[in-house]
Design goal:
Structural class: alpha+beta
Distance between the termini: 53 Å
Mean pLDDT: 91
CATH topology of the largest domain: D-Amino Acid Oxidase, Chain A, domain 2
Low-confidence stretches: 557-565
CATH class of the largest domain: Alpha Beta
Number of domains: 3
Radius of gyration: 23 Å
Shape: globular
Largest sheet: 10 strands, mixed
Helix content: 25-40%
CATH superfamily of the largest domain: D-Amino Acid Oxidase, subunit A, domain 2
């Protein structure tokens, strides 16, 4: 049977195929952890399937601080081993996907009365570079007050003593996840979004698959597998409850919000990692004409599918901004957009939200359900390797089959085959010129080349055959090309999939979303043959998310003293 492409038009056929198979591995969860596990297992030769109840990356994996970083603050908590491991992984993630990951010099201001002094900052950053095996050109540098102000003029002179700069890596977390999943699919994985596990299946007391319900058609499918991995992020414990194995350790969800401002309002030149009045650490990062700031860290027990920003969340971040940048007088009316995400951490008694370790753990129940919990975006590949190593040990013991070691350390993810990070700029320049031959402007061509990496030829091909159609529909050629590519190559099912997970536009280009939402919905409705009810539902959901991006809700609890941090 011919392999089905990763198109949303193939979802039903793919589910029909999946119910007839018996997989080596079924991964429940299509975030960065599940995507990484799928890629690792399939490249070792394991027959692998993935089901995700929402869209790929719809949970934690599209709502982080969008950094592939080593966790400098965890040195304060003596998480030396974790800092060393994820610090080294930053470079691996970058090389495998340079089109979705960018080195970013981060400034750590040293202020009177602040958490970090000159000596502790110098030692801490030096240790960080050592643990992460940072290359010489990216090692930390210490600055005096004048040098620090030159890097970021918005800082206030009266409290500034100096600063340190070091390298982190900025990423588009959702696109990183999508590219990992696309590479997994290319390597042989069967993956479907909007496919919710309603119950687990068992044979002789051992988990043997899942009953999955398509959230679009409401049709149920039984998918069988020799090993089942629970990589459901915030929903990990829900699956453990299904399995009757939620004992011992469990998840503690914490919530983080980020606020987005236009650069005209918040003209930040330099990414900054700074401490707040209550001694927590917050990032402020310039990106594509915007500045985003976050994050909070509060215990969360409300709706996991759609967490919301509260007044307390918003006020906390605004207060932190005005503490470091008092001259800006940033207020609520300056907020252009925001996002709210959940961290699925492993509960530790007596610790506040920000003190809980970000370490990952693997749990195996009596039924054989393999659960991966905790962890950080940066360490996704190592987490996947750890899980698949465990599966391989089981196969070796039970079946006498050894699938060998992980093969992902030097494997480019989808779009990452550009000749390595050193060749990325040359690749973009070359493709920018090529794109103009397909009817795109130079600006459009450069944007697409940088965003999609080695997949850009597919978008150029769409553009080359769609110029007249795009004009008839009244949409720019780059927007049309992105949308058609997203539908047929990235399993985009709803407008939110496109505006949040495939483009990030709802967070960073909200005016662009407002301008083109009608046309995008019109094109998707025709391509995917929506019913009238589906059209109305997707329109309503998009409008609600646009509203939620700037509107806060009341605090979840009256005492709101669930301390931030």
């Amino acid at each position: 049977m011919k392999r089905l492409t990763f198109s949303s038009t193939n979802r039903t056929m793919l589910l029909e195929k999946m119910k007839e198979e018996t997989y080596d591995v079924l991964v429940i969860g299509g975030g960065i952890t599940g995507s990484g596990i799928a890629l690792d297992s399939t490249t070792r030769g394991m027959k692998t399937a993935v089901v995700e109840m929402q869209d790929f990356a719809a949970g934690t994996s599209s709502r982080s601080t969008k950094l592939v970083h080593g966790g400098l603050r965890y040195l304060k908590q003596l998480e030396v081993r974790m800092v060393a491991e994820v610090g080294k992984e930053r470079a691996v993630v970058y090389e495998n996907g340079p089109h979705v990951t960018t080195p970013e010099w981060m400034l750590l201001p040293i202020q009177k009365g602040g958490t970090f002094g000159k000596f502790s900052t110098s030692v801490g950053l030096r240790l960080y570079d050592f643990l992460a095996n940072v290359k010489r050109s990216e090692r930390r540098k210490m600055l005096n007050a004048t040098e620090t102000m030159k890097l970021e003029p918005l800082l206030s002179w009266d409290k500034l003593k100096g600063g340190g700069v070091y390298v982190e890596y900025r990423t588009d977390d959702a696109r990183l996840t999508i590219e990992v999943m696309k590479e997994a699919v290319k390597q042989g994985v069967d993956a479907v979004n909007y496919a919710k596990v309603e119950r687990l299946l068992y044979e002789n007391g051992k988990v043997s698959g899942a009953l999955v319900v398509d959230q679009i058609s409401n049709k149920a499918y039984q998918i069988r597998a020799k090993k089942v991995v629970n990589a459901a992020g915030p929903w990990v414990d829900s699956l453990r409850e299904m399995d009757g194995s939620k004992t011992g350790k469990y998840l503690q969800l914490t919530k983080g919000i980020h606020l987005v401002f236009d650069q005209k309002t918040f003209p930040l030149k330099q990414a900054i990692y700074f401490d707040t009045e209550d001694k927590r650490m917050i990032f402020a990062i310039p990106r594509d004409g915007k500045t985003y700031v976050g994050t909070t860290d509060t215990v969360y027990k409300e709706d996991m599918v759609h967490p919301r920003m509260t007044r307390q969340d918003k006020d906390y971040v605004l207060q932190a901004i005005n503490y470091l940048f008092p001259s800006l007088s940033i207020s609520e009316t300056d907020i252009e957009s925001s996002w709210t995400g959940l961290r699925p951490l492993i509960y530790e008694e007596g610790k506040s939200a920000s003190e809980i370790s970000r370490k990952d753990e693997v749990w195996i129940s009596n039924s054989g359900l393999i659960t991966i919990a905790g962890g950080k975006l940066t360490g996704y590949r190592k987490m996947a390797e750890m899980v698949v190593n465990q599966i391989n040990k089981q196969f070796s013991k039970e079946l006498g089959v050894n699938f060998g070691p992980s093969k992902t350390k030097k494997l480019p993810i989808s779009g990452g085959d550009v000749g390595g990070s050193k060749n990325l700029q040359h690749f973009i320049d070359k493709k920018t010129k090529e794109g103009t031959d397909f009817g795109l402007t130079e600006e459009q061509s450069r944007k697409l080349s940088a965003m999609y990496g080695s997949n850009v030829d597919k978008l150029f091909s769409i553009a080359g055959s769609s110029d007249k159609k795009a004009k008839q529909l009244g949409v720019p050629l780059d927007v049309y090309s992105q949308l058609i590519y997203a539908i047929h190559e990235e399993m985009t099912v709803t407008p939110l999939d496109f505006f949040i997970r495939r483009t990030g536009a709802l967070f960073f280009q909200i005016a662009w979303v407002q301008k083109w939402k009608g046309k995008v919905i019109e094109i998707m409705a025709k391509e995917l043959i929506w019913t009238k009810e589906q059209l109305q539902q997707y329109q309503k959901t998009l409008e609600q998310h646009l509203k939620d991006a700037v509107v806060v809700v009341d605090d979840e609890e009256p005492d709101a003293a669930k301390k931030i941090g």
